[in-house]
Write a structure and sequence with these properties.
The protein contains 13 helices and 13 strands. It is an alpha/beta fold and about 375 residues long. The chain folds into 3 domains: about 80 residues, Alpha-Beta Plaits (2-Layer Sandwich); about 120 residues, 3-Layer(aba) Sandwich (Rossmann fold), CATH 3.40.50; about 140 residues, Rossmann fold. It is elongated and about 65 Å long. The relative contact order is 0.10.
Length: about 375
């Protein structure tokens, strides 16, 4: 018999979301009530409900949440890898690769799915009927998402049992809302080591670029984002031989790439080659010297990794990058991107955004502060 649901707290929407995330991190399923479907952030008196069998555990967790520091510690006591999934055939490949990364780095995995509910036009059929219809639509969408997540969970557990995937601790989270907004909001709460997402790469149509969930998360997240095109040729770092690190000589590059090279030492094969590259669009006379200096600096810090540098020149950025990636059989591209306004992103997309739609090569994007 299914557990009875009990209310453990009544909060504003923001505080309810924080409590929900803390409880879910500890393996407690949470159900929210009294959330305004049109304006969730404006909801008051949001009920946070859990199964009665989890009550004692939840109360102990809530008791320890006395201040913001305690909340932050509760959310970040375990480093996690956040993996948004859409239940497509490609989702299981993302999970396979993500679980291998999580196993190597000792991370907990979070499978995250967002569903949307079509809203009824109230002016046409009346407020009462529309509200009832919206509730029915929400319940149906939530039920379908839960069923799909359970099927994905069953598939993962079977592969773990058969030894096809490492036995990594993981949890599943389902949210209602706009996918990119929910992913970013949840990421801010749990502060994952990275977000791993799939993309259709160069098969994506230009018309889809502005609204792409992956591209929006990639540009706006506060943590590194690893994008994996559906046509990529590897699902394990053992097969990674060539890695390209693109730089514009920003001060942050030293810090980001130092962390990245530490990961490479843990995950990649011993014969991996790291390419430090820079696209010289301004005919900078010192560009080659700075690039070589960057490579020499990291060669001293990581003597076990093979490195080289190359100054890229060509008619345009995408064509030049694409040619270098193909010629050198690059397996992973790493670069940094900066926060930009919505209008800037729409009419002058960042290099990271352009490349993610232009290549079938996985990308790791760091975010300059």
């Amino acid at each position: 018999m299914e557990d009875t649901l009990v209310t453990v707290a009544i909060h504003t929407y923001e505080k309810a979301q924080i409590l929900r995330s803390v409880l879910e991190i500890h393996g407690i399923d949470v159900f929210m009530q009294n959330v305004n479907p049109l304006l969730p952030a404006m909801s008051l008196g949001v009920r946070v409900r859990i199964r009665q069998s989890d009550l004692d555990k939840a109360l102990n967790i809530i008791e320890n949440m006395k201040n913001e520091d305690a909340v932050s510690q509760a959310l970040n006591e375990e480093r996690v890898l956040l993996m948004p999934v859409d239940f497509s055939d490609y989702s299981i490949k993302i999970c396979e690769f993500g679980f291998r990364v999580a196993s190597i780095l000792g991370l907990k995995a979070i499978l995250f799915h967002t569903y949307t509910v079509a809203k009824t036009v109230m002016a046409t059929i009346g407020d009462a009927y529309a509200t009832k219809k919206d509730d029915e639509n929400k319940k149906q969408a939530e039920k379908e998402s839960s069923e799909k997540m359970n099927r994905l969970r069953e598939m993962i557990n079977n592969r773990i049992t058969q030894g096809e995937m490492p036995n990594v601790e993981y949890m599943c989270v389902i949210r209602e809302g706009i996918p990119e907004e929910q992913i970013l909001e949840y990421s801010d709460l749990v502060n994952p080591l990275a977000i791993m997402m799939g993309t259709r790469g160069c098969s994506q149509k230009d018309l889809d670029m502005i609204g792409s969930v992956t591209a929006e998360v990639m540009e706006r997240a506060n943590v590194p984002v690893f994008t994996i095109p559906e046509n990529t040729h590897f699902i394990t770092f053992d097969n990674v031989k060539q890695i390209a690190c693109s730089t514009n000589f920003d001060d942050e590059d030293l810090s980001y790439y130092e962390d990245f090279l530490k990961l490479i030492c843990k995950m990649a094969s011993s014969d991996v080659m790291v390419h430090f590259i820079h696209y010289d669009s301004n005919e900078d006379p010192w560009a080659e010297v700075k690039l070589r200096g960057l490579k020499d600096y990291f060669s001293e810090q990581f003597p076990t990794i093979n490195m080289k540098s190359h100054l890229l020149k060509g008619p345009d950025l995408l064509t030049t990058y694409d040619e270098y990636i193909r010629t050198n059989e690059v397996d992973v591209i790493s670069l940094t991107t900066h926060r930009r306004s919505l209008l800037t992103r729409m009419f002058n997309p960042s290099m990271a955004r352009k490349i993610v739609f232009h290549t079938n090569t996985p990308m790791l994007v760091f975010h300059a502060k």
